[in-house]
Amino acid sequence: MRAVRLVQIGKPLQSIEIPIPEIGPSDVLIRVAAAGICHSDAHYRGGISEIDHLPLTLGHEIAGRVEGVGRDVTRLSAGDRVCVHYLVHCGSCEFCVRGLEQFCRRGQMIGKHRDGGYAEFIKVPGANAFPLPDEISFEAGAIMMCSSATALHALNKARFKAGESIAIFGFGGLGFSALQLGRAFDCGDIYVVEINPAKLASAASMGALAIDARSADPVEQIKNATAGKGVDVALELIGSAKTMRQAVLCLGALGRAALVGLTAESMSIHPYTELINKEAEIISVSDHLATELPALIEFARSGKLRFPPETLRVVDLDSSQINTALDAVQDSIDHVRTVIVPSK
Ligand SMILES: [Zn+2]
Ligand SMILES: [Zn+2]
Fold first, then answer.
1. Which ligand is nearest to the CA of 90?
2. Which of 5-9, 12-16, 212-216, 340-344 has the lowest mean pLDDT?
3. CA 115–ligand 2 middle distance (angstroms)
4. Quick one: pLDDT at residue 233?
5. How many A from CA of 217 to the centre of ligand 1?
6. If you placed Cys at 321, which of 105, 143, 211, 315 could pair as Cys (CB 3.0 to 4.6 Å)?
């Protein structure tokens, strides 16, 4: 089969012919119909994030059709449409038995610790393949398993409830999904804080109150818009100490700030006036859980979570097209996601 693989850190991915993986009793073999090209793939290629071994087939956002199943897999059969949960876990450790597989000590991420979806076929444990309803395209099924799943996890970790107001800091892929999921949960007012005019316009067109952080302090703007009350939930999706602090400061009484963006910077908080006084909480968010995916898939099936065609760009399973897309993913300013759709 064809696979596009990382052979050397810092070098372009290469198209290589490798054998179709052999499945074990609990595995399924999937013919890849769509594989999303993610920011983190560019980090693996560039050596910014470490991978497990070389050569490695990248790609953790995957949807396709089941080609074959191991003898212990009863839930799925050949021809089924599926999307893939990228965290492979042991299922028996102290964390896995509590449904917290993101902390599994033997956990492996597809496309980082084991071969991913930039290929014609992929082998995954049957437990990692989730049925993909006909209403959801393979392309949407692939990309929602990363940023949308994490946006949902952030709302869940923040204990977000219907009617609550929300401030979203950063309107990239995560924010795009978080806004739609907030609305799917019947949220109150949604504020989107951005500096990019196109993103602000896009957020406004999707029903958010756009807060232009270039024009004035976003915390002041949110306080003014809420008659001084602040918001119930703030999601920080950028990864900057400045916006993390703003996410905390825009909270009202009993508000929760969920930090999703990554940074090594320090953040300062005045505990008494900025947290304790209003019993506000800072909550950290990492990845997502298998148990959250059925709800995510249902939001997409019912059209509450959408990826319109203009937000998707398709490339072939071709190393030069994929390398060009990885070059571009770093400085993307829109919501357009690139998805690999292997030609027949
Ligand atoms: Zn991803
Ligand atoms: Zn485990």
1. 2
2. 340-344
3. 19
4. 98
5. 31
6. 315
